[in-house]
Amino acid sequence: MQCGSPEDLYERPATPFVARFTGLAGEFEAETEQAGSSAASVRLTGLGGAPRVSAQVAGPVQAHRRARLLIRPAAIRLVPPEDPLTQLRARVCDAAFRGRGYDYAVLFDTGIKLVGIRDERRWERGAVVGLSLDPAGCLLFPEEAGAAPSGHRVPAGVEAVPDPSGV
Fold first, then answer.
1. CA 78 to CA 37: how far, in whole Å?
2. Predicted confidence band of residue 1 (pLDDT cuts 50, 70, 90)
3. With the CA atoms of 134, 21, 30 and 88 taken in that order, what torsion angle do they form, in degrees rounded to the nearest 10?
4. DSSP alpha helices (H): ranges in 4-141?
5. CA-CA distance, 92 to 32, in Å (whole number)?
């Protein structure tokens, strides 16, 4: 699918498949508002209120088009929900201590789940947290025909169950 150094594959994936293969926290359906050759402003259509975030353009996207935002775990910073850096809010649905910090999974009210988020602080399961996103780890691609559903979906009314790996 793509040849290059590990750094090139991770930082500049040519396709959503390569980005998924090299590791994601999750994905969102989005619509581009402004799109340049290297950066874009997008509205997350898969979340209530359609929040706006900035992203790195990873594929040929145009303004006012459907797109797919793929987010690296390292691009997510957990902050208190009232912190001015908060761009999104979610609930901690799973946590695992990993020695030098914690791995978290967070769940949005819409059922989208982001996984593999590392933080040194301890957040309790069920806590509402703010998410601050680094645009360099938010990869924007044009919407794919037959794309997979956004993120990891948990059906409404079903409580998230920790996966066997403890994350």
1. 29
2. confident
3. -40
4. 6-11, 16-22
5. 28
Q: Which of 31, 58, 56, 50 shows the shortest CA–CA distance to 42?
A: 31
Tell me how far apart the alpha carbons of residues 126 and 91 are, in angstroms, rounded to a whole number: 6
CA dist 121 to 5, 78, 96, Å? 33, 9, 12
Q: Please give the residue that has the higher pLDDT: either 150 or 31.
A: 31
* 91 and 128 Cβ atoms separated by less than 8 Å: yes
DSSP state of 74: G
pTM of the model: 0.82
Q: What is the pLDDT of residue 147?
A: 53
Neighbouring-strand partners of residue 67: 30, 142
103 contacts 114 by C-beta, under 8 angstroms: no
130-163 pLDDT, tens digit each: 999 999 999 999 987 445 544 444 444 444 444 4
What is the Cα gyration radius of the chain?
15
Q: How far apart are CA 107 and CA 89, in angstroms?
A: 9
At position 106, the amino acid (one-letter code) is V
Tell me what percent of the residues of the chain surpass a pLDDT of 70: 86
> Exposed, middle or buried, 121 (CB in 10 Å: 0-12/13-18/19+)?
exposed
At 36 the pLDDT is 85
